[in-house]
Amino acid sequence: MRTVIAALVLSLPGLAATADPVDDILAAAAADCSGFENGVFDAADAVVEVDLDGQEPLDRLVDTSRFTCSSAASMYCGSGGCSLHAVVGDESWEFQAEGWRMIDWDGLTILLVARDGGWCGGAGSQICFEAVNWSAGSMLTVMPPPG
Q1: Which long-range contacts link 41-45 to residues 24+ away (Cβ below 8 Å)?
Q2: Which of 51, 60, 93, 138 is the most buried (most CB within 10 A)?
């Protein structure tokens, strides 16, 4: 269904970004794929509903490791992992991830992101983990902010 939505968004000339970050992420991925030898994009099961902030509606994770493009074997991932987008309402955060898990710590929801070791002072072939939670409308983590 999301693939169809992304395709419809791309087919409308002059359409500005949508109010939904997930639709924007899918539309950009579909455009990248289509622009590479007319590839066909499939989001498969990349969009997962989760509860990150403890409020309705459910939040979403977009795991680009689940994307496929018929004309490119590895368009959406690199040696350091794939993009993982955490979408809460109309805000989105992006992580470079080797994988992820949602965990419950005595009722607190935590997004655990597997990172390549370069994020944690190690070598790229090593894996470390970043724990992320939402509190009072903000994403919290002990990882230093990018850049």
Answers
A1: 41/3, 41/6, 41/7, 41/67, 41/68, 41/69, 41/70, 42/3, 42/67, 42/68, 42/69, 43/2, 43/3, 43/6, 43/67, 44/68
A2: 60
Closest-CA residue to 114 (of 75, 72, 65): 65
Number of domains in the chain: 1
Domain carrying residue 46: 2-139
SS3 at position 83: strand
User: Could you tell me if 3 and 33 are in contact, meaning their C-beta atoms sit under 8 angstroms apart?
Assistant: no
Domain assignment present for residue 68? The answer is yes
Decide: pTM greater than 0.90: no
Residue 16 or 122, more confident: 122
The average confidence (pLDDT) of the chain is 86
- The four Cα atoms 138, 139, 140, 143 give a dihedral, to 10 degrees, of -140
Name which of 9, 6, 10 is nearest 26 in CA terms.
6
Query: Quick check: is 32 in a domain?
Result: yes
DSSP string, 91-123: EEEEEEESEEEEEEETTEEEEEEEEEGGGGTS-
